[in-house]
Amino acid sequence: MKTFAEFGLEPKVLQAITELGFEEATPIQEQAIPLAMAGSDLIGQAQTGTGKTAAFGIPLISKIAREEDKILALVMTPTRELAIQVAEEIGKLTRFKGLRSLAIYGGQDIGRQIRGLKRKPQIIIGTPGRLLDHINRKTIRLDDVQTIVLDEADEMLDMGFMEDIQTILKLVPEERQTMLFSATMPPNIQRLAQQFLKNPQHVSVIPKQISAPLIDQAYVEVPERQKFEALSRLIDMESPDLAIVFGRTKRRVDELAEGLQKRGYSADGLHGDLSQNQRDAVMRKFRDGSIDVLVATDVAARGLDVSGVTHVINFDLPQDPESYVHRIGRTGRAGKEGTAWSFVTPREMDHLHLIERVTRHRITRKPLPTMAEAIEGKQRITAERLLAMVEVGELNEYKGIAIQLLEQYDSVQLLSAAMKLLTGDNKDAQIELTPEDPIRAKRRGGKNDIRSGRKPNGGYGGNRSGSGSSSGGGYRGNRDNASGGGYRGNRDNASSGGSTRGGYSSGYGGNSGSGSSYGGGYKGNRDGASRNTDGRPSSRPSSTSTRPAKQDFDA
Ligand SMILES: Nc1ncnc2c1ncn2[C@@H]1O[C@H](COP(=O)(O)OP(=O)(O)OP(=O)(O)O)[C@@H](O)[C@H]1O
Ligand SMILES: [Mg+2]
């Protein structure tokens, strides 16, 4: 493992890295940083949570001088939340160097962004739709850009982004460095690479299993109508510090968040029909721990890095295996362990097996948590809270009444009653969810396969639904229809199981792990899913809440 000092970085950048607490480079950083510093175009693939952001961020900022007053680097991300997060990380890395960076994404007041642009940032991190908007208004000019990064490049390739990205890339000088990063690199990435990259170096730090090694993956077979009960038992049993629950559609997410709240959980929902203010507020609450459970569509599947996420629960399986990999990758990051659970309805078992095949990982079947396990889990938490309170002390005001009560009642009886009150059992709240259709496994490969190069984003034979051609804009790009009319490519679902450990050694301090194995190409192709870009309200059909929620992406 290399230390960052070995990369020949300037002191101010090194200082920022130290401040971030990074001691050693992760494998992707070790491989990508020297190549990127040397100016190569790059395709970088490494498991979720292994520091790809810094792998491109460090070289990118190293190339820019503080005195510059033009946009010299552009990072594109598929979602607004990710743009914000990457901008923050770049902000931290440039803290001592004093570069200016700005996040540009849909849903935020454009006037505010224009004012930000007047401060002459050298680095822009944005979602494609809003970027184009600024380009068209001439508030952003890309004539001087020297470095372009597509974070979650494969995701950005999905229809709806491809054209925007092509438009943007064509506006950037030919003489530039272009880098693509993701944990998954379906073969169709090659198309974009051929078009826009020059002799790219491939850096792949992917062991045999594509999912991150520190994630314990399990699944539960559960009929659709019992899923909510299963979820609430699972949360009780596991008592996650922070959990992300993925639902297939916006409606699903709304209903789940509301149901969980009614049952007394501290939960909130995130999807693309919320205003950006609402989205920001939910993310803020989740990051600072004022909610424990984030219920989300795939808008939260890619790139988000929230420390303390111990559990990912796929309430609905994702449509494609890549999405599974990214969703569960919200836990088990930076050398920490995590647990992923997936709910699979009996008719979705084939789909689960597809995910297992593509990710080359067996997902362990587990029984539905029993009521007894759920109660035990809740009581354990209550007892922990109670004991923490004893530790803190400062109970003098309560001691008088406690002594009085103990004189009159049995101590076990009293404490049990207090525990019951504290546990706050809201199990009576009846929660009814609108049922979702099961996800069906699609054949991967075949003549429509993207690997054949015939269809840019074809996915497994023609799944990807025609999405709403909504007024003005609709979706661009071809995208075949998919089953279940009106759906646009939903792709969530996921399952998980079995403890997979070992393999890749992260190299972050304090994490066991064994040699990183490089190279294993992973060949899964993914189906495309549609989504609208931001900054184009017209392309977002109204009341899409019952559709699979891919359009949440971007901006
Ligand atoms: N060298 C390092 N040492 C310790 N922690 C690191 C190092 N590099 C990055 N990290 C931390 O690891 C976490 C994950 O990093 P990052 O978000 O860049 O992962 P990623 O590979 O982009 O994952 P994803 O595929 O999910 O987007 C972040 O909290 C980051 O600060
Ligand atoms: Mg990332």
SSE order and pairing:
Elements: H1 11-19, H2 27-37, E1 42-46, H3 52-62, E2 73-76, H4 80-93, E3 101-104, H5 110-118, E4 123-126, H6 128-137, E5 147-151, H7 153-157, H8 162-170, E6 177-182, H9 189-196, E7 201-205, E8 215-221, H10 227-238, E9 242-246, H11 250-262, E10 267-270, H12 276-287, E11 293-296, E12 309-314, H13 321-328, E13 338-344, H14 349-359, E14 364-365, H15 371-392, H16 396-408, H17 411-423
Magnesium ion (MG) binds at residues 52-53, 151, 303.
EC number: 3.6.4.13
Domain Helicase ATP-binding: 33-203
Biased composition (Low complexity): 536-548
Mean pLDDT score: 82
Number of strands: 14
C-alpha-based Rg, rounded: 24 Å
Low-confidence stretches: 445-555
**Helix count from the secondary structure assignment:** 17
C-alpha geometry: globular
Helix fraction by DSSP (H/I, runs of at least 4): 25-40%
N-C termini distance: 37 Å
Bound small molecules, by name, code or SMILES, are: adenosine-5'-triphosphate, magnesium ion
- What proportion of the residues form beta strands (DSSP E)? 5-15%
Largest sheet: 7 strands, parallel
Side by side, the strands of the main sheet go 3-4-2-5-6-1-7
Q: What structural category arises from helix and sheet content?
A: alpha/beta
Key attributes of the depicted protein:
binds adenosine-5'-triphosphate, globular, 555 residues, binds magnesium ion, single chain, alpha/beta, seven-stranded parallel sheet, disordered C terminus
Q: What's this model, at a glance?
A:
This protein has helices at 11-19, 27-37, 52-62, 80-93, 110-118, 128-137, 153-157, 162-170, 189-196, 227-238, 250-262, 276-287, 321-328, 349-359, 371-392, 396-408, 411-423, and strands at 42-46, 73-76, 101-104, 123-126, 147-151, 177-182, 201-205, 215-221, 242-246, 267-270, 293-296, 309-314, 338-344, 364-365. With 555 residues, the protein is an alpha/beta fold. The strands form two sheets. Strands 3-4-2-5-6-1-7 form a seven-stranded parallel beta sheet, sandwiched between helices. Strands 10-11-9-12-13-8-14 form a seven-stranded parallel beta sheet, sandwiched between helices.
